[in-house]
Amino acid sequence: MSGSGLSHQKSTSRSSVFSSNSKPNDEDSGALHESLAGLAKSIDDLSILRLKGALEGVIDVIKAAKAGKNKQTDVEDLRSHIERLESSIIRPLKEARMTMSLQTRLEILTNDLEQIRVDYQKRSGKGRFGKFLTIGDKSMTLGNVGSMINKASQSFLSDSHLHVPVAAKEFVFTQAEKALLNRLPNADARFNSAARKAAPSCLENTRVALLKEVFAWIDSSDNKEKIYWLHGLAGTGKSTVANTVASRLAQQDRLGASFFFSRDVEERRDPLRVLPSIARQFAEFSPEYKGHLVKSLDGRKDAGKSALPIQMERLFVIPLRSMGAQQTPLIVVMDALDECDNNQLVTTLLRLLSEFILTNPEINLKIFITSRPEPHIEAAFRRGSANQVSKPFVLHDIERSIVQADIKVYLRYELEKVARAYKVSKQWPSNRELNELVERAGGLFIAASTSIKFIADPRERQPERRLQALLSEKRAPGQAPYKDLDQVYYRVLGAVVQGRKDPNDELCVRFRDVVGTIITVLDPLPPRALQHLLGCNIDVITSTVVPLRSVIIVPSNAESDTDQLRVFHLSFPNFLTERCTDPRFIIDSMLRHHRLALSCITLLSSFLKRNVCQLPDPLKLNSEVSDLEERLKNVVPMHYQYASRHWGFHLRAISEAVNAPKPRDAATQQVLDRITDSLQQAVSTFCEKNLLQWLEVLSLLGSLDLAIPQLKAVEVWLKKYQSSSPTLEILRDAQRLLLRFFEPVHMCAAQIYHTALAFMPHSRLLKTYESELDGSVKFVVGREPTWNPCMRVLDGHGGWANCATYSNDNSRIVSGSADKNVRIWDATTGTLIKILEGHTGAVTCTVFSHDDARIASASWDRTICIWDSETGARIRALKGHSDPVRAVVFSHDSSLIISSSADKTIGIWDSITGTLIHSLRGHYDSVSSVAISHDDSQIVSGSDDRTIRVWDAVNKSLIRVLKLYKVHETEVGHKDAIRSVALSRDSKFVVSASDDKTACVWDVSTGEVVCTWDGHHSAVRTASFSHDGSKVVSGSSDRTLCIWGSKSGTLIRRLEGHTNAITSVEFSKDDSNIISGSGDKTVSIWEVTGAHFDPFRGHRETIMSLEFSKDHTRIVTGSGDKTICVWDTSNGALLRKIEASEPINSVSISPNNQHLISRAGEKTLNLWDAVTGSLIYNLTGHTRYIACITFSNGGRWASSGSWDGTACLWDIASGTLFRALKGHPDSVRSITFSHDDLMVATGSDDLGLRLWDAPTGSLIRTIKGSGGPVRCVSFSPDDLYILTAGDEKRVYFWDVETGDKLKTLEGHLEHIWNIGFTRNGSTLLSWDMMGRCHSWLSETGDPEDAGTNDENPTQHHLSVEDYWIVLKSVGGAVKKLCYLPISFSNTQLVIVSQQFVAVGTHRGVMLVLDLSQLLEKFGPNVFV
After folding, report:
1. Are 1366 and 1330 in contact (CB under 8 A)?
2. At 41, which helix (H) or strand (E)?
3. What phi and psi, each to the nearest 5 degrees, are found at residue 1162?
4. Could you identify which of 63, 333, 366, 484 might form a hypothetical disulfide with 258, taking C-beta atoms 3.0 to 4.6 angstroms apart as the criterion?
5. d(Cα 351, Cα 368) in Å, to the nearest integer?
């Protein structure tokens, strides 16, 4: 390393100064000898020659001085000082990067070391040191030398930058490294960023003690307290201290990184940008870190955009661990952490950093953090790893005299600048004025800063008069610590109202309107948007705020759409709303929220209309509208956007404040009452006319997730004035509507009409907006009579949903499945947030920690995984159980994890380190479930051994066993394995679920059964208490949930909807909802209370067969409940319900709609009168199972195919066997007639197709070549070709005349259910069981593609794809028409025929939709 300020001289090596021939005088000096040898070796290759020469001179002095008499302590001290010099300065110096500050310090160090030689020369009386040094001179002792070395070293280290080794020269990034680092999301949040407004640093001689402590902490070698948390009230100067610390460290070249948060700048309040931004700065600071970072990001280039734990792993853990132990710290400064968005992520960030520091003590990372003492930050520092590695300092607790002295220095400095700027007398201000100004600041730097802004107002240019005005104001008697700051604010505000004393004066009213709105809006707005909310001219706003520049940031351009009106400091709005006593300035928050809510609703009502953005094709997904952003900017400007996003939240603010209103005068109360009346009317009108249009706009804005919370807030507010009303019903309906149909409306705004409104049950909302259904989907059959208690089905797991639980704030749901995955869902909207992958076996249990920061999941793979709940990253896996882990729970302080396992033990784990603390043993069979009391004192476990055990969680001992016992010869308790246990909130009772079909409530203290529920028909797999303890919900293998009284055992409500066993149940924290997991792979959200619900209009069990009549005026369905239903497609009327003797898994209707044929048993057919429902004939003749049935096109014959290898044609008129077609060596699976009824085609498991002469029954041709059993057959319209399909998911295209296979068509992913041709025969169509359609061109057999052009409307066809009903064209275009809101795990079959889509479910419910109006409106023209 070199530097221009240090001379470079030739120097010979001194590494041999202490050669093997130079021995110490005695044994005590042996260690000194080694230290000197080490120093000599270390400086051998030092490139700073002047410093090297000075050090060589020091070695010569020591060599001379050690020959005399020296104290043993001096020898030992000198050795210590030499080692410190070598390790802390010389070695790091070789890797250091030369800076101006370092160069200056090195010159001082060199001078100090050379002074040792000079002093020796003076004391010895010799001449030039290098020539006349006399060995053995005793005038200078080793104690003298050691003292001087120590002084020089301390001076250098106290203000140097060597604490982090960096490259010996400025390093250069390669293009690849630059590209990699540029992928890291960066926030311009450095302390010295040009994007930040100029931030002050502590003036000289201020904050001396605090800064000394901070830098002592930085230089300390303590491995424990590596996070310094400086927190204090608003206005106490935290940011100034942070800026000073960062600035000094940067000057010393010791600052690794800085991040200064700001709630006003999106990128600087984004917690996901913090670690990537710091990593980029680290890479610029340390080439060693940069190299390890590049390696860490290799193959994970998007790690910087990942979840926080992944960022932590890739950007911090791997690079810093690779660097190894560092002698000097890598320092980060973070300011205003409380201004970071998302409290949960802030908590996660602190936890990740502190856990890393705790588990890697060798990594010398130090973090300086400032914030206000917000609850979530305080909580994070109080518990867990952060509590163990942090050093808190309360800024507002510093002795008042010290703070005042610092404020005095600041005020003097600032006022001197003002005096120079305005050419004020040098004697200004006087000591008295300055002292009074200090006193009025009240220990708050924000008060001093605001005073300066007021005095130096550039509009007035009279600082002396402004100072006198400020000091002449009577001091308010307010409470510390804000009384003096408040006095400053009073003075500032006085200038706005120009001496007006009447609160009702125009200026005073205008101030309250304008400033009250600025401080009340939920997002800062520019003047242009604010004027619409206020209903005033923009000049009124600017004239009001310009005199307030000392407290409000006023944009230079009032017409700007981006520059917002914001307050300088939060203490100002707090003063106006909480502490101000002058009625001229008091801002009544509730009144402001009322006005803003009313203003928002008025604005929305004035512009909302259907398709407000005039989209040419409203059915396009929002993401497909290329100019959507521009349309929104023009049609929905900022004030409309604000109103859309926040009108309901203003009403929520009213509800939250109304319980403890600030006293107000009678006039204000009257105004408030009038606005409240107007608001109620406005809300009612809005809900009746504009509600769906508002949801449409939110969808286009990408803010639909704000709708449900707003609707809930409005409902809560309105219920304070109305116990019941049509408006309240509409609000509740709208919440249910969005919960059920959130995804399609979020994706496409128009689906609020075509899906949500079209599919919702009979309700007030549907009645109100029924006219909007014109031109939309027509619900023929299946509209529910009222809201289903199942509010939402969360569909997505690929295996049994074994568990589901709410977060403690009710905002999320976590579920685990046999598919080995954990899923996190939004509990408000029902949308999937994240999938957590990592287990190698089925997930058996999931649970949130009580701070909701983490999730624990138990698995069949014998592990427990801990996940970050916000980011979804796996934190660690706990291993220790020898068999599958069946249940897991956090202690209520989240410090412990309790698990139960098939290995018969209960594990107690440290949730931070993952260490297994203890195993509880006592059960003699698999432990199925575990719970912990709310005071964390007791653990309760349930087992397959039929017992419940209560354990002392502190002493790890057994307290009590709850098991089967007798009362008067009657057995009480469980007689079979216990599946689950759960504690009541007061921990006095435990509810257990058992394979013996019962659930029991036990008294924990006595072990007695309080109540037994035996209303299930199969094993009870799960049970849980409501949070108020009054109810229990149980779930069973009988597929039902039962809600019953926890003490009475009486049934309150039975919930049905799942199609497989219930695996888990839990009440929401407010007891309004229940979630359940099921073997049908879904999680359901249920309403606890509500009207009786019975959706069944026809069948009550699985719909096994569904067919449209040839003219599409009828639908016939068959069910496992042994019934056949005939429906009218024009109005959905149930025309006939026929009771049969066997489950109906196959039924067909004749072309003239007069007859039905169904299978009865395995070998017999029933022929029915479709009009009267009477049985006409039993058709017998088959000897084995009948696999397929159909009618001829003319209706003369019915046909059937059987496993006996025959196909039979039956005469309808006589009910006799007309022809038996024999020849297939295996089962006949499919049968159909040609359009002229002259031929019959049969498909078989023998992989063949046979064509028969229908009138004679003779075999025409056998066609071979199918790749599997033939399940479907269909003739072309001209009967020249035939299609077949089977289990192998292919379609085959055959020539009838020759039997040649013309094409093999592929593309299906599921088994094919139906095949056919378009009317003109140009296109081949096939559908799977879920209604997904594939199409091919008849001439070529190629899939339809965009290159094909056919404007014939008949060439468009419906398909069901990924829950959407879509319209496909021959040209290959796909148009999403509407979303099909069904759970595919509950769906038996989907049939698409012409304009109809029919769905049959496992529950016996059928949906039939007529899309003719929608096709007419958005049909073929959308493809032109």
Report:
1. no
2. helix 30-42
3. -100, -30
4. 333
5. 15
Q: Which residue has the tokens 């005299």?
A: 401
Averaged pLDDT in 10-residue chunks for the chain of 1424 residues: 36 35 48 76 72 82 76 77 78 63 71 82 53 45 82 68 38 70 85 72 79 87 83 76 90 88 84 92 85 82 74 88 79 92 86 86 90 82 78 68 74 81 79 80 73 75 78 56 71 79 90 94 92 92 86 80 79 85 91 95 95 93 93 94 96 74 75 92 96 97 95 95 94 94 94 93 94 89 88 92 95 96 93 93 95 92 92 89 97 92 96 90 96 95 97 94 88 94 95 96 94 94 96 96 93 92 96 95 92 75 91 93 93 92 93 94 93 94 94 95 95 94 94 95 92 95 87 92 87 91 84 81 78 76 50 62 80 79 69 86 85 79 42
- Looking up tokens 């040098």, which residue turns up? 426
Pull the structure tokens for residue 892.
């209520």
Q: Tell me the C-alpha to C-alpha distance, in Å, between residue 1383 and each of 1063, 1092, 1278.
A: 18, 22, 39
- Do residues 1224 and 1205 make contact, with C-beta atoms less than 8 angstroms apart? yes
- DSSP single-letter state for residue 317: I
Four-residue CA torsion sign, 236, 238, 243, 246: positive
- Whether residue 1422 contacts residue 1415, with contact meaning beta carbons closer than 8 Å, is answered with no
Q: Please report the sign of the dihedral spanned by the C-alpha atoms of residue 1173, residue 1174, residue 1177, residue 1180.
A: positive
Beta strands in 1170-1280 (DSSP E): 1175-1180, 1186-1191, 1197-1202, 1206-1211, 1216-1222, 1228-1233, 1239-1244, 1248-1253, 1259-1264, 1270-1275
Cα–Cα dist 579/573, whole Å: 10
3-state secondary structure 1168-1193: EECCCCCEEEEEECCCCCEEEEEECC
Is residue 1285 within 8 Å of residue 1326, measured between CB atoms? yes
How far is residue 210 CA from its own chain's centroid?
A: 39
Nearest CA to 417 among 378, 456, 380, 472? 456
Residue from 1400, 1420, 1415 nearest 1365 by CA: 1415
Alpha-carbon gap, residue 608 to 611, rounded angstroms: 9
Cis peptide before 527 (omega within 30 of 0): no
Looking at residue 435, its amino acid is: N
CA gap 231, 1063 in Å, rounded: 47
| Phi, psi dihedral angles at 465 (to 5 degrees) | -65, -40
Taking 3-state DSSP, the helix, strand and coil percentages for the chain, each rounded to the nearest 5, stand at 35, 25, 40
In angstroms, the CA 1230 to CA 1207 distance is 9
Instruction: Tell which residue, 799, 1025, 815, has the closest CA to residue 933.
Output: 1025
* Strand, coil or helix: 1338: coil
1010 and 975 Cβ atoms separated by less than 8 Å: no
The C-alpha atoms of residue 745 and residue 757 are separated, in whole angstroms, by 10
Asked if 2 contacts 98 with a C-beta cutoff of 8 angstroms, the reply is yes
Q: Please name the amino acid found at residue 601.
A: I
Rounded Cα distance between 1160 and 1140, Å, is 8
Buried b (16+ CB within 10 A) or exposed e, 624-655: ebeebeebbeeebebbbbbbbbbbbbbbbbbb
Q: Concatenate the DSSP letters of all residues of 905-969 into one string.
A: EEEEEETTT--EEEEEE--SS-EEEEEE-TTS-EEEEEETTS-EEEEETTTTEEEEEE--EEETT
The position carrying tokens 């308790």 is 973
**429 preceded by a cis bond (ω within 30 of 0):** yes
Strand partners, 333: 258, 368
3-state SS class at 983: strand
| Of 138, 22, 145, nearest in space to 80 by CA | 145
Sequence-distant (6+) residues with CB within 8 A of 504 are: none
